[in-house]
Amino acid sequence: MPLTARPQRPRVGLFVTCLVDLMRPSVGFAAVKLLEDAGCVVEVPRQTCCGQPAFNSGDRDTARALAEQAIAAFSSFDYVVAPSGSCAGQIKAHYPELFAGDPNIARKADALAAKTYELVSFLVDVMGVTEVEARFDGTVTYHDSCSGLRELNVKRQPRQLLATVKGLTLTEMKENEVCCGFGGTFAVKYGEISNSIVEKKTEAISASGAHTVLAGDLGCLMNMAGKLSREGKPIAVRHVAEVLAGMTDEPPIGAPDQRER
Amino acid sequence: MTARDEIFATIRRSLGVKGTEAPRRHIVQERLESAPKGAIPQRGQLIGEALIDLFKTQAEAAMASVVEVDSAMDAPAAIADYLRASNLPARIKMGDDLRLAAMPWGDTALEVSKGRSDGQDLAAVNHAFAGVAETGTLTMTSGPENPSTLNLLPDYAIVVLQSKDVVGDYETMWARLREAYGKGQMPRTVNWITGPSRSADIEQTLLLGAHGPRSLHIVLVKG
Amino acid sequence: MTLHVTSPQFKDNAHRALQDEQLQKAMGNVRQGFIDKRAVVAAKLPEFEALRDSARDIKNHALAHLDLYLEQYESKVTAAGGHVHWARTAEEARGAILDICRRVGARTVTKGKSMISEEIELNTALEAAGIRPVETDLGEYIIQLRGEIPSHIIAPAVHLNATQVESDFRRVHTHLDPARDLSQPVQLLTEARGVLRDRFLAADVGITGANFLIAETGTSVIVTNEGNGDLTQTMPKVHIVIASLEKIVPTLEDVSQILRVLARSATGQEMSVYTTFSTGPRRPQDVDGPEEYHVVILDNGRSSMLGTAFQDMLRCIRCGACMNHCPVYHAVGGHAYGWVYPGPMGAVLSPSLIGVDKAGHLPNASTFCGRCESVCPVRIPLPKLMRHWRDREFERHLQPATLRTGIGSWGFFARRPRLYRLATSVAMRGLALLGRNKGRFTSLPLAGGWTDYRDFPAPQGATFQDQWKSRKAEGRR
């Protein structure tokens, strides 16, 4: 949708994603802040999962049921935004495929796909955001999560906004477009192979010299954080939204909570 | 049912066709006759000196060596120089190509023998049908004039190429080949050769001279 | 025929591969070499993406009219004096080749690199018939000496290092001086060149594969860098081409389009060194070339892939870019896949050819990172096709019960949003409490696949939806 065609204050349905909902709500609140700062009205309809784990496991019936649920919950919004390239990619790239044989639902699936975005690319490409009000002191490196990168062309947008975070220096790791080895159920089904892939990733992360690694997908982040922590590497792991929103009070992913309570 | 019949039957069943449909047959005939070209790289769409330069650059990038001579009369001397510079005996093998035969080999000290290679020749000379500038690729056609073995067996392959035979892209080369051999007809072998033989099968280390020539030398005749 | 399939043991194969330090080092070469070179040549050709579209469209067109182009191809081969043999199965293909070899009394057969030859296990059949097959592609020659199958479709010996090759050469080339220096790759190459040169000159029959079959002219095309394929088909009296039926393309123009993306995708070269177009046997005036020219066209289940979702796979031109860019292939190498076709293309093709019951692991062993599809020169949607296999496995209950149960119970809650909120709300608070001090779990029941290798980050506590609801309620107050 071209910039001129969008409403002044669009109603955005936040597809928070089940991982953020369950594991790291702070990413959801960071997303809300970024969307509101960009002039959106954010709502969070009751939701569960986009259905990708079922879809990727060959369970099309469950995948379709969950997709229909999401279509019903989100159809009324101007836009649907997820702090994840993977879940946004499921809606945008795969919902239409799921209902290709069913014209009634296919129409709705296509309509939802057309207005669904990954958070950071939505901010930049649709809302025209060019800078953020945030401060984060230190050197970070950025991992390009696969679905966002290859299904949704998320690449330059996070870097563009990170460049406007005060105190932040971005240093690219080698092979930043290579998979971290998460792959949803793959990480458990083929744990040993997944481990070999994430080992190469953590090696690239530490070689970059950054003290924090960022990405736009919680699955990848948990995988990288879990490996860095197992390897005893003192590198913080965060969702890019937390840094862009200036909401980094919560401990990094997988780090102990040392705040007074 | 023969294997052939059953394979065709399965293909047609899978595609949901009978094989007799006139529109399908027409589409296929049309494509074979018109041979649409697709996407042609701009890179080769040059003329004159620029086209020749591109051919040279690309051939050299593929690790061939290129020397230019003013006329075909100068080719034997250039080849003699090349052999001398490579510390090779002044001996070459070649086929019956009339263009090669018309060159003044007698003005050099080269010992010339004719025919195919049996694997004992260190150096051989063939005449190219064409050169394609977009990738520095030679087009060699088989026959008694330029036996295929001469492209393959000697350690040093030498190829004479006329500037007028340098074209920008493969499609232009095919058009010329059709003019020479007839539509739908091919010589037994058409060899596209881009640089000397090589292999990277051991630890991805690129090495020249795997089975074919270790060296490919192109004598480009101007004019 | 399926004697050597170890695909069902994929996990064990992978485990061994991951422990194999030498292999891991060799796979590092793949990660660095192929990928950068491809990226450089692709960037140098502005039309590269348009050519990928063109290549895809040509293959789609050829497949949609496959019966007619095969008829045309056959008639042109015959008109040029060649012979076409049709084989429904691997066994029929082996039979056709053995018949020709026996008729001409062949004792030695040189071979160009051919994946179809691997698929039909031709060497075993030749040896059983008392005919000596000699692989001439350097990589294929090395793995033949070792009794292995290729670990990569264009770089068959990519899993080996020079020291291993040296010891194989010393073991087999016993006629050479034992004191010779073979410490450098170039010395290994020179030795192989010398040994194989004699074979080329002595062979009775040469067998090559084909990258393409051109309908317009009845031509078979091979692409090599070494020139071994050319010597294989030029020196002996008989040239046999073995190719699967989807190799057909309509015209010389069409093959030129695809050749522009083949080498660039495969090795990162603008063009391979030798691209050879062969049409029939030698002509009356020719002084070299084979006296007989045969083409054995293999189906082996491919015709049944037409008209299905897997028709897209028949576009594959065997460049290897998918495996060069695959993190799983980089981790485990080609042999772990357990049959002749490794990597993403093998994960899609192998279940079609040997059955999803045997090859079922392969389409599952993917993170769906999509890098294969992003570099495929004919734009095969490899992850989508792997997912199609997973659909079929799910329908047939072929996947592990634990996965089915896991997805099933997740689905149960996810389809009931109220229950989901209730359950997750309790579970996350509990987990958060347990994990708060360390921020992570070092082991979790039922998630050994994860926690054997890495920690599991602890959740923050109350779910987002719970917190959002309370904030809204506060806001209204």
From TrEMBL, chain A:
Pfam family, one: CCG
InterPro entries with a match to the protein in the record: Cys_rich_dom (IPR004017)
Domain Cysteine-rich: 12-92, 140-224
GO molecular function: oxidoreductase activity
Top-level lineage group: Bacteria
Gene Ontology CC terms, in alphabetical order: cytosol
Transmembrane segments: none
PANTHER family: LACTATE UTILIZATION PROTEIN A, UNCHARACTERIZED PROTEIN YKGE
Protein's name according to its UniProt entry: Cysteine-rich domain-containing protein
Species this protein is from: Alsobacter metallidurans
Species lineage: Bacteria, Pseudomonadati, Pseudomonadota, Alphaproteobacteria, Hyphomicrobiales
From TrEMBL, chain B:
Annotated ranges, domain LUD: 54-221
PANTHER family the UniProt entry points to: LACTATE UTILIZATION PROTEIN C
InterPro entries referenced in this protein's UniProt entry, alphabetically: FTHF_cligase-like_sf, LUD_dom, NagB/RpiA_transferase-like
Pfam family, one: LUD_dom
Transmembrane residue ranges: none
Protein name in UniProt: LUD domain-containing protein
Organism from which the protein derives: Alsobacter metallidurans
From TrEMBL, chain C:
PROSITE patterns the record matches: 4FE4S_FER_1, 4FE4S_FER_2
Recorded superkingdom: Bacteria
Gene Ontology MF terms: 4 iron, 4 sulfur cluster binding; metal ion binding
GO BP terms, alphabetized: lactate metabolic process
Coiled coil: none
Ranges for domain 4Fe-4S ferredoxin-type: 307-337
InterPro entries hit by this protein: 4Fe4S_Fe-S-bd, 4Fe4S_Fe_S_CS, FTHF_cligase-like_sf, LUD_dom, LutB/LldF, LutB_C, NagB/RpiA_transferase-like
Keywords from the UniProt entry: 4Fe-4S, Iron, Iron-sulfur, Metal-binding
NCBIfam families hit by this protein: LutB/LldF family L-lactate oxidation iron-sulfur protein (TIGR00273)
Protein's recorded name: Iron-sulfur cluster-binding protein
